[in-house]
Amino acid sequence: xxxxxxxxxxxxxxxxxxxxxxxxxxxxxxxxxxxxxxxxxxxxxxxxxxxxxxxxxxxxxxxxxxxxxxxxxxxxxxxxxxxxxxxxxxxxxxxxxxxxxxxxxxxxxxxxxxxxxxxxxxxxxxxxxxxxxxxxxxxxxxxxxxxxxxxxxxxxxxxxxxxxxxxxxxxxxxxxxxxxxxxxxxxxxxxxxxxxxxxxxxxxxxxxxxxxxxxxxxxxxxxxxxxxxxxxxxxxxxxxxxxxxxxxxxxxxxxxxxxxxxxxxxxxxxxxxxxxxxxxxxxxxxxxxxxxxxxxxxxxxxxxxxxxxxxxxxxxxxxxxxxxxxxxxxxxxxxxxxxxxxxxxxxxxxxxxxxxxxxxxxxxxxxxxxxxxxxxxxxxxxxxxxxxxxxxxxxxxxxxxxxxxxxxxxxxxxxxxxxxxxxxxxxxxxxxxxxxxxxxxxxxxxxxxxxxxxxxxxxxxx
Length: 462
Description:
Number of strands: 15
Radius of gyration: 23 Å
CATH superfamily of the largest domain: Type I PLP-dependent aspartate aminotransferase-like (Major domain)
Number of domains: 2
Distance between the termini: 60 Å
CATH class of the largest domain: Alpha Beta
């Protein structure tokens, strides 16, 4: 019976795998691009065609593909001890070493570290820790959390509730009670006529204050956000935004939770996005580039002051009811340590800054293109926002159709970009070279020419 089912699937267009971030009915073999190998910043499909992965595959593969040192680190740990838990006073040397390394790297004093497997887990675990700390320290009322519209924080029920994709909340019965959202900083699209970036930042923070006053600020536990949101097109915030935001939160005793799942590990031109934007977090989450995605690892880093509250509560109860079977997996820890070692010994932070400057310069050249309304850039990442009319910022009737068409043409020319809304986001691996950036934009130009031709025919763009 099993053999017959396998034969039927092999000879049909059906697949057993359920795909995400797409129409489920499109999850068939004829519509699925299957990659079979990777090398450096390139991946290759079943026919041998190469694709320049200009988004590091969901902003993960910081060191590119098939890095021998990461593979060797995993094999070595598999041979030593392939798995053991880190709980109940048991652990593995490499896990303890990774925790020490991360605690030394994060911009928080006396940091403590807890592990998970995914960014979603890290964000969910952190909120669980926040609840425990408040309940055990006499702040039971502080349960509410604020996130930003358009930001992505993960796929679990809690993380999806934090995620500001409100057009998808209703279909999943979200957000969960006690989770609120405020505007994403987007001066280009949301500022009033003549409103400066500083005045716009002041207005956003005033809107947050209005929400807090309406709901009672003493019932809020935390504000969580990324330093810059890649999920909504790399919307870089005004220079004074985080300064004003943090001042308001501190005044109300509300914790700042820094989601570094995408922005950590050199992406923004500093090791942490918090350093790039002057953020002083109470806690941080990280994943993705921590292992260059060669093994699923995530982490929560907590300031010593925050952790003391957890320990106080744990002492009162005699335990802390939290663990994860794969939290602190020794193979993942070995790969993460090797990833950080490679970043340091090859000076990939320096390369991210240097190649980020090249990337930014290239992107700036598109500012006058008839389809480009806004160019954004930070570190080794950038985006272009598409419009049909630069003066009026007019879009197509179907949201996202320009960036979507561009993304399809980019793929046809062997370039992978992330189309989100009307933006195309670029975030190539940290190991990219200047010649490879030239090749990236050669393919980018081909896709852009196709898109302009389409926009001319379909929408009268000249």
